[in-house]
Design brief:
This protein has 373 residues and is an alpha+beta fold. The chain contains four helices and 18 strands.
Length: 373
């Protein structure tokens, strides 16, 4: 069940409470956020329900909450009150070492009231300077204490499953109860409470579902890539099966001008000519950059338009024009550019191709451009 709790304002100095949205689970957890300047050590006595016998107390600590950080100190299955069993509850005690090196307890400034966090009363049993966890029967959680009793600060009464956050803002010796000299701890702090069985199952199911989605996404991506490669291979095969047409045969030379015509045939006017020029484009542009079908207004559309206009304006019969890999990446459609910056004009006398059987070099795709001058 997914539900949310409204924030609970507390108009008392030293404590601010927040209640974020609750996750879907049947456990209730308490997170302590320490906005003070000193580390706080937390001990908890959790009331655990038994269906037939009522409940028992499980005391544990210490849960270190460094300054400007948060830590979960309680996480148990949530149980509402039953005919003979009380609802889930935890008694929370805070200790710290103040600036004078004195170990003491932090007493909550809360006074009565309702809601999921209240002013606590009584004591709980702890082990000073070492990690601990033990159980006590119903009744007083500090009964038969073989360690040290410290005062309870707050009583945590969740009104449903979910995560609850309490923010502490201890600023000095207010609400501080000295307990004695600080004892250096040589033990590992208590581990954060483990998730309930229900929460563990939900996490395992969520993890399995995420892994399955990841496998499906990967398989779909691989299939799309395979189809694209097959389509490109078919296109290349079709191009290879259709060789480019041979260059147009040279036209008959114009008749010699009359002896009395000093300007020559046609005078100052150049007769129109029509021929095809071979454009060789790097296969990287064709396969990976949508040369054949550029999007309108795209960078490739602008680059292809620049190349076409340039070749038509400068093309010579028998010449080839090459666009090498890397030229497209240098092109900036927003800047003024000339085609000769990106396109190499290769003459038939260069020895780079057979003038009688023009072909593109390996790694290039061939395109014929119709030129009319």
């Amino acid at each position: 069940m997914i539900r949310s709790i409204k924030s609970l304002p507390v108009l008392l100095s030293g404590v601010i409470l927040f209640s974020p949205a609750i996750v879907a689970s049947q456990s209730a957890s308490l997170e302590i956020c320490n906005n003070g300047r000193l580390e706080i050590d937390v001990a908890v006595a959790a009331r655990i329900q038994y269906i037939l016998t009522g409940y028992r107390w499980k005391s544990s600590g210490w849960y270190a909450v460094p300054a400007r950080s948060c830590a979960v100190v309680y996480s148990e299955d949530y149980d509402a009150a039953g005919p003979i069993t009380p609802q889930s509850e935890a008694l929370v005690a805070y200790t710290l070492v103040n600036s004078d090196g004195v170990w003491g307890a932090y007493k909550s400034p809360l006074k009565g009231g309702g809601g999921w966090i209240r002013h606590g009363t009584g004591e709980i049993c702890v082990k000073q300077g070492e990690a601990f966890e033990f159980t006590r029967p119903a009744g007083d959680p500090a009964a038969s204490c073989d360690g040290r009793k410290i005062p309870v600060s707050d009583e945590f009464l969740p009104d449903g499953p979910g995560k609850f956050t309490l923010t502490m803002e201890w600023e000095g010796d207010s609400f501080f109860v000295p307990l004695g000299k600080a004892v250096p701890s040589s033990n590992t702090p208590a581990k954060p409470p483990e998730d309930s069985v229900g929460m563990q199952l939900l996490k395992a199911l969520a993890k399995a579902a995420a892994e399955e989605r990841q496998k499906q996404d990967q398989a779909e991506a691989e299939e799309r890539q395979r189809q694209a490669q097959a389509a490109e291979a078919q296109r290349q095969a079709e191009l290879a099966a259709t060789p480019p047409p041979p260059p147009a045969a040279p036209s008959d030379p114009p008749p010699s001008p009359p002896a009395d015509d000093p300007i020559g045939g046609g005078g100052l006017i150049t007769p129109p000519s029509s021929f095809k020029s071979l454009l060789c484009v790097s296969e990287d542009l064709v396969i990976n950059n949508s040369w054949n079908q550029p999007e309108a207004g795209s960078k490739m559309a602008a680059f292809k338009d620049l190349a076409g206009r340039y070749i038509v304006s400068v093309a010579k019969p028998g010449w080839e024009y090459w666009i090498a890999q890397g030229q497209y990446e240098r092109f900036d459609p927003a800047a003024a550019s000339s085609g000769d910056e990106f396109i190499s004009a290769v003459s038939p006398d260069s020895g780079k191709f057979d003038a009688f059987d023009p072909q593109c070099p390996s790694g290039y795709s061939a395109f014929w451009v119709q030129v009319r001058h």
